[in-house]
Prior knowledge:
The complex is a heterodimer of chains A (150) and B (390). Chain A is mainly beta and 150 residues long. Chain A has one helix at residues 33-40; strands spanning 5-6, 13-14, 45-49, 55-56, 71-75, 79-88, 101-108, 111-117, 129-137, 142-149.
Amino acid sequence: xxxxxxxxxxxxxxxxxxxxxxxxxxxxxxxxxxxxxxxxxxxxxxxxxxxxxxxxxxxxxxxxxxxxxxxxxxxxxxxxxxxxxxxxxxxxxxxxxxxxxxxxxxxxxxxxxxxxxxxxxxxxxxxxxxxxxxxxxxxxxxxxxxxxxx
Amino acid sequence: xxxxxxxxxxxxxxxxxxxxxxxxxxxxxxxxxxxxxxxxxxxxxxxxxxxxxxxxxxxxxxxxxxxxxxxxxxxxxxxxxxxxxxxxxxxxxxxxxxxxxxxxxxxxxxxxxxxxxxxxxxxxxxxxxxxxxxxxxxxxxxxxxxxxxxxxxxxxxxxxxxxxxxxxxxxxxxxxxxxxxxxxxxxxxxxxxxxxxxxxxxxxxxxxxxxxxxxxxxxxxxxxxxxxxxxxxxxxxxxxxxxxxxxxxxxxxxxxxxxxxxxxxxxxxxxxxxxxxxxxxxxxxxxxxxxxxxxxxxxxxxxxxxxxxxxxxxxxxxxxxxxxxxxxxxxxxxxxxxxxxxxxxxxxxxxxxxxxxxxxxxxxxxxxxxxxxxxxxxxxxxxxxxxxxx
Lengths: 150, 390
Ligand SMILES: [Zn+2]
C-alpha cells in the first residue's frame, strides 16, 4: 500500500490524514431572540440602553458601558451610506459554493452594519446612498442583510 | 523587581512550504539555533512559552508535545494565543515572568504549520480570527476581505491607487530575495503585482502575505544573566499591548488600526522615544497585506494620517530612506506563519541590531534601536516591542 505521498512542489513526504473531522455547533443566541425574530419580519434591530443611551449593533442584552440590563430594541432606518466594500473572489471553505460576492459596511443613522451588496462592483462608490433589506439566502435558507444602491 | 530584560539568543526556521519536515522538526530548527547562539543549556531554561494559533495542523495542544520533543520536561509550559500577535504576546508574557522575578531564563517558541491544511480550510480558519458569529458565518468575509475594506476606504479618502500599494510588495520582495530564510526569495516588478488576480478586490494576490510553515524562538533573561551568557544582549526597552473592536462594525473608521496606535504610544513612552524617526534604525511591521504596512507607517507615527502612502511612493522605507521597514522581506515575502510571526520579528531585529544579517539587507545601526509592530486578527490585538543595544 502506497500511503506515503510526495508533495511535488518540495519533494517532502506526507501521509494524508485518514481521520476527517467535521465541526458542528449549536450556537446559543442568549437574550437576542428578538433580533433574530426581527430578521424574519424584515426588520433590523439594534439595542439601546435605557439607562445611558448607548446603542449597540450587533445588539447585546446588557450595556457594557454602564452595566444596565434595561434594554429597548430600536429599528434601524432603511436608508444609509456605504462606508466601504470589497468583492470576495477567493472564498473560505464554507462559502465556496457561492459566486463571487460583495460585502460592504453601511452607516444607518450612525449605526454601522455589515451586509451583502447587490450591485456590480464598478457601480459602487464610497459615500453613496444605499438601502437595506432582509433576504433569505439560498441554499441554506438563512436571513441576510442585503444593501442596494438607491 | 525592576530589573531589565534582555534577549540573548534567537533562532528561526526557514519559512515556506515546509512539507519536508514534521511539526516537531520545524520547531527544532528554531530552538536549536536560539540555543546555540544564546549559550544557554536546556537545563537553564525555567519556563517555556509556546505561541501558536493552532487548527492548521491537527495537534490540539501543542505545548505539551513540543516540550516533550525538545526535551524540556519537567519545565512549566503553556501555549499563548492572540491570533497573528500570538508570538508578540508570548514575548510579552516571558518579559513579565522575568520582570516579576518568577523566572530568570525563559524560552519563547512560536510555530505554525499551515500547509497541513488545504487552502480553503486555511482561509476559513483565518477568517474566524475575526468575529465568527456576527461577521464570518453569514457574510463569508475572508482575511484579505477585512483588509480590502480598509484599502478601498483609504484609496477613496486619501487618493491612493492600487499601484501605490503594490510598491510595498515590490520593496518587501526586494529584501526577501536577499533573506535566505524567506519563503519567496525573488524580486517582483510593479507589473507582476498590478497584473495579479484579485483575491478580495481591490486586494490582489501580490498584496497578500502567503500561507506559511515556520517557527521562531527567542531566549529572554533577567539582567544579572545577560552578560553571563552574551557579549551583545539586546534589551527590551519598551513592550506594550492594546486592543480594539474585533467587529468591523465596532470601528470608528477604516483608515487605521487604533490598537496599534495605542500600543505604539505606550511603548514609545516606556522606551523614552519622543520622535520615532529620530531613534529607530529599523522596523519590522505587520504587512499581512500591503495596506497594513501603509497604515502601520501612520499608526507608528512615521508619517501623518493620510501621508503613509507617500513614504512608500518616495521609497523612504528602503535602506537609505527615512526609516527602513521590513528588511527581512516582511510577512509579504519572508512569510507569515501566524503564531510564530511575532517571535520571528524579534529574531530578525536582534540580528539587525547585532549587524548579523546579509550585507545587502543590513540597516545602518546608528542609535541601536529597533521596533517590532505586530497586529492580530483585524486589529483587535496589537503589540509593539522596542529593542535596544543599550
Ligand atoms: Zn448603558
